[in-house]
C-alpha cells in the first residue's frame, strides 16, 4: 500500500503541503479551508516551510491589487531538494532525480542486467552517483526503488538494503503498478472521490486501486495480470496458452513483428515505426493488442467495480493510433454500463515519476523531520561498489 494523502490525521506540515501537492499554487487562506487548519496555524507553518526551502511564494501570480502576504500564492519549491527514484523493469533500469513536486529533473536509462540482484543494482548506484554530481545544488532527501518484484523474482528488502548502503539514504520500496498509479493520481492535480482503477501494461501488466477514504488516500489492492487469460492461442513460458503478457507485452508484439518479417529485429519501437510508416500488417498487430488490453481492462473493471478507470503505460500511450480500438473493446466487453475511462498523461517518463512517488513518501510523511536530519547523498565514488 502507498499512502498518497494523510488528511486530518497527518502532522501539521503534511496537512499544509497536501493541498499544495494537488492544487498549488494557492493562497494561505485556500490552504486553511482545504486542510481544516486555522489561518494562524497555516501562516506559521508556511513561514517555517519557506525557511526550510520546502515552499516558495509566487508573487508573480498574485491577483492585481492584492495587498499582504496572505494573498500571495505559494507552491512546493522544486529547486532545492530532490529524491532518488529507481525503477527496475524487465528490460530497462531507470534512475532519476525527482523534485518535490514529483517532476523528474534528470534520469538515466539502462538495459536491465541479467543475473543476481547485486549485478542488477550495481549500475543503479553508479548512475545515482553521476546524477547527484551533475546537480550539486540539490540536497537528496530520500530514495525509492520500484519493481514488479514477483515477475522479476527479486527480493525487494534486499534491493532496499543494497540501495540504502550505497547511498546512505532512507529507502522506500513499492510495487511497480501501485507506484505508477500513485504517480498518475498525483499528476492529476485533484483528489478523486471513491475508487479509481489503474490498469498498467507494457512489458508487464497489472492493476491497482486508488481509494479516497475519509482519513487518507491510498493505493492498494494490487493485482498482477501476467497470466490473465486473454483468449489468444499464444503459448506462454508457464506452459499455458493465452496468458496476457505472452500475448500483449512489448516483448511479445515486437517478437511477433519480427517473426512476420515486418522488422529487422524483435523490437517494439521498430514495429511501431513500421506501423506509423503505413505498414498495415504492423498496424494490425497494434490494433489486436489494443483490443486485447481493452477487453482485459473491462473484465477487471467488472470484477472490482471502481468509480472510474485510467489506462497507464506505454502499451496504451506508445501507439496512440490504437487507443480507440482499446476503448471500443472495453465498452463492448464490460457488463456494468458506462464509466469514465481516461488515459494517463505520462508517456516515457512514467517509470521515473513512479519511482519518485515512492521516494517522496517519507518526505511528505514528515517533511521537517527529513529536511532537518542529516541528509546524505550518493555522491561518493564508493557508491559504485555495493
Give the structure's gist in a few sentences:
42% of the residues lie in helices and 21% in strands. With 386 residues, the protein is of the alpha/beta class. Strand 4 (81-88) and strand 5 (92-98) form a beta hairpin.
How many beta strands in the DSSP annotation? 13
CATH-wise, what's the superfamily of the largest domain? ATPase, nucleotide binding domain
CATH class of the largest domain: Alpha Beta
Helix percent band: 40-55%
Arithmetic mean of pLDDT: 89
CATH architecture of the largest domain, by name, is: 2-Layer Sandwich
The share of residues in extended strands comes to: 15-25%
Order of H and E elements: EHHHEEEEEHEHHEHEEEHHHHEHHEHHH
Low-confidence segments: 374-383
Please list the strands of the largest sheet in the order they lie side by side.
Answer: 1-11-10-9-12-13
CATH fold category name of the largest domain: Nucleotidyltransferase, domain 5
Rough shape? globular
Topology (SSEs and partners):
Elements: E1 2-5, H1 12-23, H2 28-35, H3 39-51, E2 55-57, E3 74-76, E4 81-88, E5 92-98, E6 104-111, H4 117-134, E7 139-147, H5 149-152, H6 156-167, E8 171-175, H7 176-187, E9 194-201, E10 205-212, E11 217-224, H8 244-248, H9 250-259, H10 268-276, H11 280-304, E12 308-312, H12 314-317, H13 323-333, E13 340-343, H14 350-359, H15 361-365, H16 367-372
Parallel strand pairs: 4-7, 7-8, 9-12, 12-13
Antiparallel strand pairs: 1-11, 2-3, 4-5, 5-6, 9-10, 10-11
Helix pairs in contact: 1-2, 2-3, 4-6, 7-14, 9-10, 10-11, 11-13
Amino acid at each position: 500500500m502507498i499512502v498518497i494523502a494523510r488528511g486530518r490525521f497527518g502532522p501539521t506540515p503534511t496537512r499544509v503541503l497536501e493541498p499544495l501537492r494537488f492544487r498549488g499554487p494557492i493562497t494561505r487562506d485556500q490552504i486553511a479551508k482545504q486542510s481544516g487548519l486555522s489561518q494562524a496555524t497555516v501562516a506559521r507553518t508556511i513561514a517555517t516551510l519557506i525557511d526550510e526551502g520546502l515552499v516558495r511564494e509566487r508573487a508573480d501570480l498574485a491577483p492585481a491589487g492584492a495587498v499582504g502576504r496572505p494573498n500571495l500564492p505559494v507552491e512546493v519549491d522544486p529547486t532545492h531538494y530532490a529524491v532518488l527514484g529507481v525503477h527496475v523493469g524487465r528490460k530497462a533500469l531507470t534512475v532519476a532525480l525527482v523534485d518535490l513536486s514529483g517532476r523528474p529533473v534528470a534520469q538515466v536509462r539502462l538495459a536491465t542486467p541479467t543475473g543476481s540482484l547485486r549485478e542488477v543494482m550495481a549500475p543503479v548506484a553508479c548512475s545515482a552517483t553521476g546524477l547527484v554530481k551533475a546537480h550539486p545544488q540539490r540536497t537528496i532527501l530520500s530514495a525509492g526503488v520500484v519493481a514488479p518484484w514477483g515477475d522479476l523474482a527479486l527480493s525487494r528488502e534486499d534491493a532496499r538494503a543494497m540501495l540504502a548502503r550505497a547511498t546512505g539514504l532512507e529507502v522506500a520500496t513499492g510495487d511497480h503498478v501501485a507506484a505508477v498509479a500513485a504517480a498518475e493520481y498525483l499528476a492529476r492535480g485533484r483528489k478523486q472521490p471513491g475508487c479509481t482503477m489503474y490498469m498498467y501494461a507494457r512489458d508487464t501488466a497489472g492493476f491497482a486501486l486508488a481509494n479516497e477514504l475519509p482519513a487518507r488516500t491510498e493505493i492498494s489492492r494490487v493485482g498482477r495480470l501476467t497470466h490473465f487469460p486473454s483468449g489468444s492461442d499464444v503459448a506462454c513460458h508457464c506452459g499455458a496458452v493465452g496468458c496476457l503478457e505472452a500475448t500483449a507485452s512489448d516483448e511479445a508484439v515486437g517478437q511477433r513483428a519480427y517473426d512476420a518479417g515486418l522488422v529487422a529485429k524483435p523490437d517494439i519501437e521498430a514495429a511501431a515505426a513500421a506501423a506509423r510508416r503505413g505498414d498495415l500488417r504492423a498496424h494490425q498487430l497494434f490494433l489486436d493488442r489494443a483490443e486485447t488490453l481493452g477487453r482485459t481492462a473491462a473484465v477487471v473493471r467488472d470484477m472490482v467495480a471502481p468509480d472510474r478507470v485510467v489506462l497507464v503505460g506505454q502499451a496504451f500511450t506508445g501507439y496512440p493510433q490504437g487507443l480507440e480500438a482499446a476503448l471500443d473493446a472495453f465498452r463492448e466487453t464490460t457488463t456494468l454500463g458506462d464509466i469514465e475511462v481516461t488515459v494517463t498523461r505520462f508517456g516515457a517518463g512514467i517509470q521515473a515519476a513512479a519511482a519518485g512517488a515512492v521516494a517522496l513518501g517519507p518526505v511528505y510523511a514528515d517533511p521537517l523531520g527529513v529536511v532537518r536530519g542529516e541528509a546524505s547523498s550518493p555522491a561518493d565514488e564508493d557508491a559504485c561498489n555495493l
